[in-house]
Design a protein that fits this description.
6-stranded antiparallel β-barrel; about 30% helix; 4-stranded antiparallel β-sheet; 5 helices; alpha+beta; Elongation Factor Tu (Ef-tu), domain 3; OB fold (Dihydrolipoamide Acetyltransferase, E2P)
């Protein structure tokens, strides 16, 4: 009996003691942050693909044996460099023949001019008939026409000789050749010898709905920016495997009419590609900045979602957790989210220690966990 009374007394004494330090340590530790102002940029977003600004098929314009291939597949060539040589000798012979024919026709013309002048003098003295003078004058005009025809043949022969060298019309990268040296080239079928692509700059084509284009034009109008004006319209691109929008170009074309089948307009931007990392045919995510505004933001990790609504946990002045429903806006590039309503700039938002945390729970605020 004595032992029972002693135990009850001990329990009564413990009940009167203040809470132990271990109870204080049981509070959840959390890291908080007040909402921070940040610049939020509104974008029009789409997807598109790169294409060459300049791309041509190098074709044969004269027939003959392909004598030389002066570059390897994939080489970079400069404007005016000879890429292919088609057997030139037959065309040199044609040129020499045309030159000789021209000289002959020029000699005939000199003779006809002299004869016409002589007949003109004799006709004036009434030594020869008028018909003889007219005949001499006609022969002179025929000789002049023959010289003109011979000059045209000479230019044609010279042009055909120049076509035996297939040159690059601009700086670019060569595609795989379709014929090897020694093959016969038939110009009648206009065979493609290779494709030449200019790698820098490139076009990026993408589409936007009518409403999105209206947004673009409204935003640019508000900033007094016009397509083709002094202020370029910035377009940003990210590759499918890229970390961000690391490529920047400028908008250079908006289609004048809507595609009736898709209900969209085609837009195009030009992107510099000095390191030739980008290639025609690559797909990319595209965005156009429409404007920037100042907004209140919190880290994306602080936002919870349940049954279609979004909320954050805040700590009040008594150190107790409260739940606040929030309306979300746009994201920032550094992983923050715009808050349109639900919290104020002085609220203490829980950013770390959220796992299992419930409203009404007392917490301890720390600098790090």
């Amino acid at each position: 009996m004595y032992r029972l009374l002693a135990a009850l007394g001990l329990l009564s004494s413990l009940a009167l003691l203040p809470p132990s330090a271990s109870a204080e340590e049981a509070k959840r530790r959390v890291v908080i942050e007040t909402p921070q102002p940040a610049d939020i940029t509104r974008y029009l977003q789409s997807t598109g693909s790169f294409s060459a600004v300049n791309a041509v098929d190098l074709v044969a314009r004269v027939s003959g044996t392909l004598e030389e291939v002066r570059f390897r597949d994939g080489d970079f060539v400069r404007k005016g460099e000879t890429v292919f040589v088609i057997e030139p000798e037959p065309y040199r012979i044609s040129l020499l023949t045309a030159e000789a024919d021209l000289k002959q026709q020029q000699a005939n013309l000199e003779q006809a001019v002299a004869n016409a002048a002589r007949q003109e003098t004799l006709s004036a003295r009434q030594v020869v008939s008028e018909s003889t003078r007219e005949s001499a004058d006609t022969q002179k005009r025929i000789a002049e026409a023959q010289v003109t025809a011979a000059e045209a043949k000479l230019r044609s022969a010279a042009l055909n000789l120049s076509y035996t060298e297939v040159k690059a019309p601009f700086d670019g990268m060569l595609g795989a050749r379709t014929l090897d040296a020694g093959a016969y080239v038939n110009a009648a079928s206009a065979p493609k010898l290779a494709v030449l692509i200019e790698p820098d700059p490139l076009h990026l084509s993408f589409s936007a709905t009518e409403q999105e284009v209206i947004l673009i034009r409204t935003a640019l109008s508000g900033r007094k920016i016009t397509l083709g004006g002094d202020t370029p319209i910035r377009v940003e691109a990210a590759l499918s495997e890229g970390d961000g929008y690391t490529y920047a170009g400028t908008l250079d074309y908006i289609a004048p009419e809507i595609d009736r089948d898709t209900g969209t307009l085609t837009l195009r931007a030009v992107f510099p590609n000095p390191d030739r990392f980008l290639s025609p045919g690559m797909f990319a995510r595209v965005r156009i900045p429409l404007g920037t505004r100042r907004a209140v933001t919190v880290p994306e990790r602080a936002i919870g979602s349940l049954q279609g609504s979004n909320s954050v946990l805040v700590v009040d002045d008594k150190g107790v957790v409260q739940q606040r429903k929030v309306t979300l806006g746009d994201r920032t590039p550094d992983g923050r989210r715009e808050i349109l309503s639900g919290i104020g700039e002085m609220d203490r938002v829980v950013t770390l220690g959220l796992g299992g945390l419930r409203p009404g729970q007392a917490v301890e605020i720390v600098d790090q966990i």
